[in-house]
């Protein structure tokens, strides 16, 4: 595959993802970033790029260690994406958005030490699984990547405190589906916070996760309400 054909292909894939995120209300303007691994290279949306209106000039090409090869200036969140790929080596796509309810949930005390979001629906457990809260650092801070990479909880998604969500997937379609499902779980969690809500039991959540290939740790296994 030539350099130009590779760029055309990844631009089409990333642009479609950006349009889907914008249409779902998960991103606005230049907030958030998306990356995909293809043919041993990483394509990532550039800094300041409008995900809903992405063109080839807004795509950066990186090596697998994050070195900028050509194209747009990559987002300052490169380390975040590399950390998600390190956590899940079989995954080939990563989505980071400041979607409204994921940000809202990230401003609350986490449900447990292993998931900021409780097992509120079977679909969240099956499509996303436990989603730990990563401590706050300013956007682009070099420690964000290390905090994500070293988070001990097995997961395909994290919430960044006071910031938003990051998810990875085997491909971009998988990562997008997880991002949409996580936003929905955060929405329901925020709307029901403070109420006498009914959650899935530890047994049900673990059974669903085991059947779906996600991860779920019972709340009793870790301290709840970690700040």
Can you describe this structure in just a few lines?
The protein has 227 residues and is an alpha+beta fold. 37% of the residues lie in helices and 16% in strands. α2 (78-87) packs parallel to α5.
Descriptive report:
- By secondary structure, the protein is α+β, with helices and mostly antiparallel strands.
- It contains seven helices and eight strands; from the N terminus they run H-E-E-E-E-H-E-H-H-E-H-E-E-H-H.
- Strand 3 and strand 4 form a beta hairpin.
- The protein is globular and about 55 Å long.
DSSP summary, beta strand count: 8
Major sheet attributes: 8 strands, mixed
- Structural class by secondary-structure content: alpha+beta
Overall 3D geometry?
A: globular
**Continuous helix count:** 7
Segments where pLDDT lies below 50 for 5+ residues? 222-227
Strand order of the largest sheet: 4-3-2-1-5-8-7-6
Mean pLDDT metric: 94
Q: What helical percentage do the residues reach?
A: 25-40%
SSE pattern: HEEEEHEHHEHEEHH
Task: Give me the Rg, rounded.
Answer: 17 Å
- CA(first)-CA(last) distance: 48 Å
Topology:
Layout: H1 3-23, E1 33-38, E2 41-45, E3 59-62, E4 68-71, H2 78-87, E5 93-97, H3 100-106, H4 122-127, E6 133-134, H5 143-150, E7 157-160, E8 164-169, H6 172-192, H7 202-212
Parallel strand pairs: 6-7
Antiparallel strand pairs: 1-2, 1-5, 2-3, 3-4, 5-8, 7-8
Helix pairs in contact: 1-6, 2-5, 3-6
């Amino acid at each position: 595959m030539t350099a130009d054909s590779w760029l055309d292909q990844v631009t089409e894939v990333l642009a479609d993802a950006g349009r889907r995120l914008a249409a779902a209300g998960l991103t606005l303007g230049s907030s958030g970033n998306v990356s995909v691994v293809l043919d041993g290279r990483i394509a990532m949306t550039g800094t300041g790029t409008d995900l809903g209106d992405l063109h080839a000039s807004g795509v950066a090409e990186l090596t697998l260690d994050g070195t900028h090869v050509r194209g747009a200036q990559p987002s300052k969140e490169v380390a975040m994406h590399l950390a998600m790929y390190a956590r899940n080596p079989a995954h080939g796509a990563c989505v980071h958005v400041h979607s409204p309810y994921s940000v809202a949930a990230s401003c609350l005390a986490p449900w447990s030490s292993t998931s900021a979001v409780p097992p509120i629906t079977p679909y969240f457990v099956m499509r996303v699984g436990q989603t730990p809260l990563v401590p706050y650092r300013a956007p682009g801070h070099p420690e964000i990547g290390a905090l994500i990479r070293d988070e001990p909880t097995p997961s395909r998604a994290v919430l960044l405190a006071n910031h938003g969500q990051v998810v990875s997937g085997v491909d971009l379609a998988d990562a997008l589906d997880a991002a949409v499902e996580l936003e929905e779980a955060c929405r329901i969690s925020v709307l029901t916070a403070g109420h006498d809500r009914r959650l899935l039991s530890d047994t049900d959540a673990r059974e669903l996760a085991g059947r779906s290939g996600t991860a779920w740790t019972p709340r009793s296994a870790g301290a709840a309400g970690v700040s």
